[in-house]
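Entry for the shared binder. Reason: the reviewer on the internal report wants the predicted structure included alongside the sequence.
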Amino acid sequence: MKRWICLARLGLAAVLAGGVLLTSAPSRADDYAFINIATASTAGSYYPSGLAIAKLINDHLDRRASAQSSAGSVENVDLLRNGEANMAIIQNNVVRDALAGTGIFEGNAFEGMRVLTPLFTNSDHVVVRTAAGIDSLAAIAGKRWAVGSVGSGTLLSNQAILGGAGLTVADVQAEYIGQTEAMAALQNGLIDGANLTSGVPFAQLQELLLTAGDSLTIYGMTEAEQAAVVETSGWKAPFLIPAGTYQGQTDTLNTVSHLALIMVPTDYPEDLAYALLRLMEANVDTLKQAHGAFRSFDLASAEARVTAVNLPIHPGAQRFFDGL
């Protein structure tokens, strides 16, 4: 596997409660002197979250780290597979399908990754142009709709949303663009809507709604629509966006969500995986200040959340969870 490494004999950083202490210990962490974190487009939560984690590593561990923008979850699997990244943020259904060789990974399974930790809950924001008259998920049919980039988790989320209304991508005028481009297209009236995924609150969406005024709104699903998306997708969960979260949002909105997971290769050194989680535990407040999506980051419930979706945990992460 191609490594992002300098073959230097570097000691492993051990993170201790109440602070960070660097100590030396021989391990395969020497092969991970540089950590490249695959994220997604710069407009969502993955990229700024990757930057925040990279900064922690650079500030406190005897490693160098950077965050790489990408098309998203599907591409991130291949970046891990090809050794172009050695850490990646990937949504739970993509991890499931890649490990099992099902769905878009049929005949092309990748079993060489494990969960380090759930990062946060990513929720779906169905943003529509007010003048488009979209008053139900079924009404998206025939509309100009940003479905996400090829290779992105956003595309899979759009397919799930459309599927809840008995639609497919073929039923809309699909624009295969990322979230950055989708928000620009919404602002300029070039599309009728887009399903944007992010943690709540979604800072870039807040800015867009402030600029757009009454021309854009977030569509709240009916309970029946929400239940249909959950059932037909098999991987989405119900979620509520509290009233007042966004400009002009006076009501609590029904939507759906999924888990964003930090994935690492199976040969990721156990001591390094453990040290990273200790580092994140010691700096939770820093992460929450770095990006709003970290509000749902909770290491205390992490193991249970991974177990609930039946995904394999990295041994270093299991060691950390066992000590909680």
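Summary line for the report: The longest strand covers residues 113-129.
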